[in-house]
Amino acid sequence: MTTQSEQRGDVAALVPAAGMGLRLGPGAPKALRDLAGEPLLVHAVRRLRQAPSVGCVVVAVPPGAIEDVRAMLGPEVLLVEGGATRQDSVALALAAVPGQYKIILVHDAARALTPPAVVERVAEAVRAGAPAVIPVLPVVDTIKQVDASELVTATVDRAVLRAVQTPQGFDRQTLVSAHDQADDALTDDAGLVEQMGVAVLTVPGDELAMKITRPLDLRIAEALL
Ligand code: C5P
Asked: Which residue segment(s) compose the domain that 180 sits in?
């Protein structure tokens, strides 16, 4: 039987951040926006590394940015140059993960306040045998479907809807296969796995794992810190 301590550090976390330039401050690409004096990417990687399961973090950075991002993140984070699309960047980061890691998480730098407990929840579900796991929250707003004229055509039953967060967790082989077979770019890696017909398990997410995208999100995140 495997003990808890033996399980620690058996997970690799990937952070695609190659879509960004290298400017800091207002107007900077999302992953480098300043939050309480540090780039979102730094906050996100710190919390990933606080999760006991995470033994390896790989960040995909823009070509030519390795040295700058190394200065932000320190020597223990693996850095690779990203590709033309987010999906390519994830695939390149995945290829850089040392062979001993059989559980892979894919995270979003904009979810900079994601609590380590969410990372652990996702990792544990993959460790327990699920090939793909996503953290989710119930949808609180009423959701309407509209047509091209913005007229409402339907009210969707929100009881069956979930808002998806990250990190998304995968058995390594499942993620490798999904990337090998993917023929179009989806916004999440679990979508690639769904296309293969593999079941994707949901676990509870956390409001703190919100995506920090709009100015209001940044102010909320700063207040939370
Ligand atoms: O541009 P978009 O919002 O879709 O990017 C989503 C995430 O994927 C960002 O964190 C971005 O840095 C990353 N990305 C990447 N490689 C690319 C394009 C985007 O790692 N070629």
From this structure: 9-224
| pTM, entire model | 0.92
Q: For a substitution probing ligand 1, which of 41, 89, 106 has the most ligand atoms within 8 Å of its CB?
A: 89
Domain count across the chain = 1
Cα separations (Å) of 49 from 8, 13, 163, 211, 212? 11, 9, 24, 19, 19
Between the CA of 123 and the centroid of ligand 1 the distance, in Å, is 23
3 falls within a domain: no
**Is there a contact between 26 and 36 (Cβ–Cβ < 8 Å)?**
no
pLDDT, greater one: 24 or 50: 50
What's the token pair of residue 216?
């209001």
| 2 in a structural domain | no
Residue nearest (by alpha carbon) to ligand 1 atom 11: 19
